[in-house]
From TrEMBL:
InterPro entries: Coprogen_oxidase_HemN, Coproporphyrinogen-III_oxidase, Elp3/MiaA/NifB-like_rSAM, HemN_C, rSAM, rSAM_horseshoe, rSAM_sf. This is Coproporphyrinogen-III oxidase. The gene is hemN. Its EC number is 1.3.98.3. Residues 48-284 form the Radical SAM core domain.
Amino acid sequence: MDQSIKFDLDLIHRYDKSGPRYTSYPTALELHEGFGEAEYRQQIAKSNALGGPLSLYFHIPFCDTVCFYCACNKIITKNRAHAVPYLDSLVQEIAMQGALFDKSRVVNQLHWGGGTPTFLNYAQMRQLMEATRTHFNLRDDDKGEYSIEVDPRETNDQTIAQLRELGFNRISLGLQDFDPAVQKAVNRIQSKEQTFAVLDAARQEGFRSTNIDLIYGLPLQTEQSFAATLDQVLAYEPDRFSIFNYAHMPSRFKTQRQIVETELPSPALKLDILQMVGKKLTDAGYVYIGMDHFAKPDDELAVAQREGKLYRNFQGYSTHSDCDLVGLGVTSIGRVADAYLQNNKELDEYQSSIAEGKLPVFRGVALDEDDKLRRAVITQLICHFDLDFSKIEQEFNISFHDYFGPEFASLNAMQNDGLLTLSDQGIQVLPAGRLLIRNICMVFDRYLAQKQQQFSRVI
């Protein structure tokens, strides 16, 4: 499989508009409060009837300090005692949800995100993992994909050893940028020594995959400064990179109002940075997985993409397309059977639901047949950069050309622009179209027109 990319400035300028990241379809904007605990229980019953492995996501919302760019659901506090009542509620939710899923279903994927999961101390992390093992069927053979997000400022050698002991075998390190001026502008002061000590410790403890998160488009960044950060990280050869485009949306995310807008790089400069990133990483031997993600050619994500087994969920790209995703904790989102659902977004509401013995589901959406069809099309395109019409036709008993007749006008225009090739058999995304894969997927999104202004720009 050709996993290369081509940077075409003219195309990027013409197609740079707002759109979803497609960690789900329909997107989270379609979740509604008419879907609650009763509907979720129905979907769990359907899921159990189908069987198969599970994926668990745990949201740990606490952070010691605020990073001004952050758009995550988090609670900023230096008081570690705030984690105690939350952890009690989370353990109760684990028991409640675990009782509803067949215990024979193996957990092949587990992820702790946040916030900062390592805000918890070792005893609390062990309590959380033990509760999970009691109520769900966790693997004992280290063959699962058990991952955690860590802040190197909150982590040391002992923490990494403890995480490995608890069963984690993949780790993602938040970094964003090493430049001191940029760090000060976004209120995230983090040294190279802290960062690389954690990376070294993870390798020594036998973590099978290491990922580094970077963000381009932050205040005071230049192409040269970000290249310096990238060079320093490349010297340590992490298995994966997640390099995100900073989306400045202060009307939605209050912490971003502390960023000085005049210090943000221009759109042209952001494109220069992105082009530099793509060249440096591909020259270093990494392959473009898609949607901000690069990996070494022998990494599980790159292999899964070449073998046609890559999937995309709320944590990004995954090798476990066969897993229903159970979300646990405040604001977490899950995908079970034919539905997406989200827990309460406010901490007091989440804890009140748990105290009353209720599942903390406050909204969701059950997919209809059109949703499932379009999800299959979008997932195939965003993960593999191609689409075989016959496979979709066989799975959904449709004629692709008849069903998606109106979409072909947009696809033909994209073919004329060199984003893709279109034939009677399918779609093949070209190297120039891979950076714009969101645009191609948007062609098949029937909800997009009325919601487009609520998404970040694709580039």
